[in-house]
Amino acid sequence: MRRICTGMAALAAGLVLHCAQVGAETIRFGGILPLTGPGALIGTAEMRGVQFAVDQANARGGVHGNPVEVQFEDNQAKPDQSILSFNKLTDLQHVAVIFTGYSGPTLAMAPLATRKKVLLVNAGAQADGLAKASPYLINTLPTIGGEIEVISRWAVGEGKKKAGVLFENGAAGMAGRDDYLKSFAEAGGTIVAQEASQFGQTDFRPALLKIADAKPDVMLVVITAGLLQMAQEYKQLDLKFTVAGTTFFADPSTIADPSSTGFVHTQLRIDAPPDLAAQFKAKYDTDMEFFAKQYYNAAQIVLATLDKVLADKKPVTGETMHDALFEIRRFQGLIPLEFKTNTASVPMDINEMRDGKDVLLKEIKLQ
Amino acid sequence: MLALQLLVTGLVTGCALGVVAISFSLVYATTKIFHVAHAGIYTLGGYLAWSLMTYRVPLALAFLLPVAACAVLGALMQSQLYARLERRRATHLVVLIASLGTLAVIQNIIAAVYTPNILQFPLNWSSRMVAFGPVRLNWTQLLTVAVSVAAYAGTMWFAHRTILGKRIRAVASNPMLADITRLQPQTVYVYVIAIASALVCLPGILVPLDLGLQPYNGVTPLLTATIAMIAGGVGSITGAFVLSVAIAVLQNLSLLVMPGEWSIGVTFFIFVIFMLFRPTGLFAAAR
Question: Which distant-in-sequence residues (6+ apart) come within 8 Å of A175 by Cβ?
């Protein structure tokens, strides 16, 4: 009898231990971001945003008691490297959700996400193609077309009717160029020059000179790296036209540099409460800039979705996460978001860089 | 006006590329090693100078110390890597892979230590502009032209007027004969890579002084410089320098007639056609 009791006690203890282990199962997500190379400044901010949100969730005891972990892979903003990382994370780590950024890599991974039913979460890239690239790709910010429409209307409204376009020779840059060609003409302006730059390039002088030769009133820019160098070379060449762009202008070093004074850009609105920003700064010794906020917000959306999946006692897969996200639809993170489609809409502003600061010029509300 | 400014910008870029090309040409013509890690030394020189300038080391020292450090690193690469591989009768492909590996190691160490972000030199004077009529250049660009032309002239003088220079040319011309006549090719190889590393450090500092530092920005100049070296005639210092300038000028002036995204492709297509008619290079005979 004593042996039976001892055996039952051991069995019960084992069961309790097993249940505790099951309850504390680590849920692993992936992140494929540029952590080295010319895109690393933005990629690192994005990684910190996700990690910060996950660390906060884990400090509160995880999601339904499950700690969450994000395994980051460096894609150097390259599509081919992204595919390798995607296969590694999905085939070996079996992650259900992958945070991604940059248009080229995200567009390259989108068909794989559809096939493998893995939820891709993009909070930084804005090429128009992302909107319909995959049912499993969700974009927590609008595509670049909406911003370009706004900045084009603003420029023409200010009497700047002749424009040159400086674009990056990649997925995001070429999509942006095409949007400028369409939106600026629709707003009543004329594109008089267009010049390409390579991703990571820092010598913009030939392109700037050629655009200047066409005597535009405004230069519309869609580059994702090297903005500060472009601003300094623009200043050194003593060019007079206005420089305008989108949210990608929100680079702190460019804003702080005097050469960017007068640059105008659209800015998707996202704010962090002061205490949250202070905690972020204490942890990473850097300000919580735009992309860190965007990815913090995206991680909050994923964590809220995970909470629902676990509450519904469903397995954590790309499919259940995708379905739960659209069941929730409305999220209140750093900004209120609603997913009517795969791409969220958010309000935006038009800002002007002035003496080291980004100053509000005009508030815009998206329909 | 546009043509003139593009021409001058091309000349500046070409002069810097020219120094990369003559330094690579020195190594390749003498050792026959496709020294890809040269791009890593180019990058490292800039980062060392940046560190010294950040710590407010006097400017002259901040330029000279990285040059010396790069020379030492180059000598170590030859004596500890390439010479060992040669003793073990490694093929050219194995040596190339070792060089590629060394480049990757240097780039990744730089990225780990300095971050992969674009860094700018903490100098105010470097971006100040000087206007020559309609042409505007900054002080760094002017310094780049002056130092590059001086480096070319110095290399020519060294190669033709000094005993070591003549010894290098002798080894480059016939290593076996040089070995028999006790010119010690292995020692010469160490000198050559040290000198070439010191040389490539000059544009390695000056170009990022103007355009910013990135850990991976040495490969494109090396690729262009290699093409210039081949088109100019392998072993010809003048050929490598002149063709570098020509390529850069052509790339810039091509913008007058075509969009920028085509300029690199079209420029190199012209050189492919050129090589079909003169495969030994433009200055092959004038070593």
Answer: A103, A127, A128, A129, A144, A145
Nearest CA of chain A to the CA of B128: how many Å? 8
Chain A hits for B134, Cβ within 8 Å: none
Q: In the A/B pair of chains, how many CB contacts fall below 8 A? A: 76
CB contact under 8 A, A210 and B260: yes
Check whether residue A286 and residue A219 sit in a common domain: no
Closest CB to A206 among B108, B118, B252: B252
A195–B260 C-beta distance less than 8 A: yes
| Cα B187 from Cα B253, distance rounded (Å) | 43
Closest Cα to residue B24, out of B199, B147, B216, B249? B199
Could you give the 3-state DSSP secondary structure of residue A102? coil
**CATH code of the domain containing A68:** 3.40.50.2300
**For residue range A93-144, what is the model confidence (pLDDT) as tens digits?**
999 999 999 889 999 999 999 999 999 999 998 888 899 999 999 999 888 8
The rounded distance, in Å, linking the Cα atoms of B197 and B73 is 8
| 3-state class (DSSP) for residue A349 | strand
Maximal C-alpha separation, chain B:
59
Q: Which of A322, A264, A269 is nearest to A297 (CA)?
A: A269
A244 min Cα distance to partner chain B (Å)? 20
pLDDT tens track for A68-88:
999 999 998 899 999 999 999
Domain boundaries, chain B: 2-115+139-277
Strands A27-33 and A68-74: parallel
Which residue is associated with the tokens 């190669």?
B159
Determine contact, residues B158/B165, Cβ cutoff 8 Å.
yes
Cα B123 to the chain's mean position, in Å?
24
What is the side-by-side order of every strand in the sheet holding A27-33? A68-74, A27-33, A97-100, A119-122, A137-139
pLDDT at A276: 95
Structure confidence by residue, pLDDT tens digits, B22-68 = 999 999 999 999 999 999 999 999 999 999 999 999 999 999 999 99
- Chain B partners of A195 at a C-beta cutoff of 8 Å? 255, 259-260
Question: Is pLDDT at A336 greater than 70 in this prediction?
Answer: yes
CATH of domain B2-115+139-277: 1.10.3470
Test B118 with A213 for CB contact under 8 angstroms: no
Tell me the C-alpha distance between B140 and B143, whole Å.
5
Q: In chain A, what residues touch B214 (CB-CB under 8 Å)?
A: 38, 200, 202
Same domain? For A279 and A137 the reply is yes
Using DSSP's 3-state secondary structure scheme, residue A111 falls into helix
Q: How far is residue B254's CA from residue A322's CA, in Å, rounded to a whole number?
A: 50
- Shortest Cα–Cα distance, A359 to chain B (Å): 25
Q: Which residues of B touch A36 (CB under 8 A)?
A: 108, 111, 116, 215
Phi-psi region of A194 (alpha: psi -120 to 50; beta: other; left: phi over 0): beta
- Which residues form the domain of A278? 10-143+271-338
Q: A334 and A196, same structural domain?
A: no
